[in-house]
Amino acid sequence: MDKSMLGDLDALPEEDKMRMAAMIDQLQIRDSLRMYNSLVERCFTDCVDTFRRKTLDKQEESCVRRCAEKFLKHSMRVGMRFAELNQGVATPD
């Protein structure tokens, strides 16, 4: 976990800091799993048409690869934009 996320929690007792860090870690894991599941569902739905074989054919494989790349690039861009907006909202101490 990124320690900067705890911000101004220095006044909290150590036990509360540890509990807060564990909660943040759990939220990050949950969000990562959600993003992964969304990626799999979207790309599978868009790219896989039939179940003729155990493996994907070349067209399906290419589609899945493009879909995953677009999804991840979009997610990264949204994350960067969110970080930019958060920096602009930060209040000086």
Automatic annotation (TrEMBL):
GO terms for molecular function: metal ion binding. Keywords: Chaperone, Disulfide bond, Membrane, Metal-binding, Mitochondrion, Mitochondrion inner membrane, Protein transport, Translocation, Transport, Zinc. SUPFAM superfamilies: Tim10-like. It comes from the Eukaryota. The keyword Chaperone applies. Residues 23-84 form the Tim10-like domain. It is a peripheral membrane protein. It is found in: Mitochondrion inner membrane. Belongs to the small Tim family. The twin CX3C motif contains 4 conserved Cys residues that form 2 disulfide bonds in the mitochondrial intermembrane space. Heterohexamer; composed of 3 copies of TIM9 and 3 copies of TIM10, named soluble 70 kDa complex. The complex associates with the TIM22 component of the TIM22 complex. Interacts with multi-pass transmembrane proteins in transit. Mitochondrial intermembrane chaperone that participates in the import and insertion of some multi-pass transmembrane proteins into the mitochondrial inner membrane. Also required for the transfer of beta-barrel precursors from the TOM complex to the sorting and assembly machinery (SAM complex) of the outer membrane. Acts as a chaperone-like protein that protects the hydrophobic precursors from aggregation and guide them through the mitochondrial intermembrane space. Mitochondrial intermembrane chaperone that participates in the import and insertion of multi-pass transmembrane proteins into the mitochondrial inner membrane. May also be required for the transfer of beta-barrel precursors from the TOM complex to the sorting and assembly machinery (SAM complex) of the outer membrane. Acts as a chaperone-like protein that protects the hydrophobic precursors from aggregation and guide them through the mitochondrial intermembrane space. This is Mitochondrial import inner membrane translocase subunit. It comes from Miscanthus lutarioriparius.
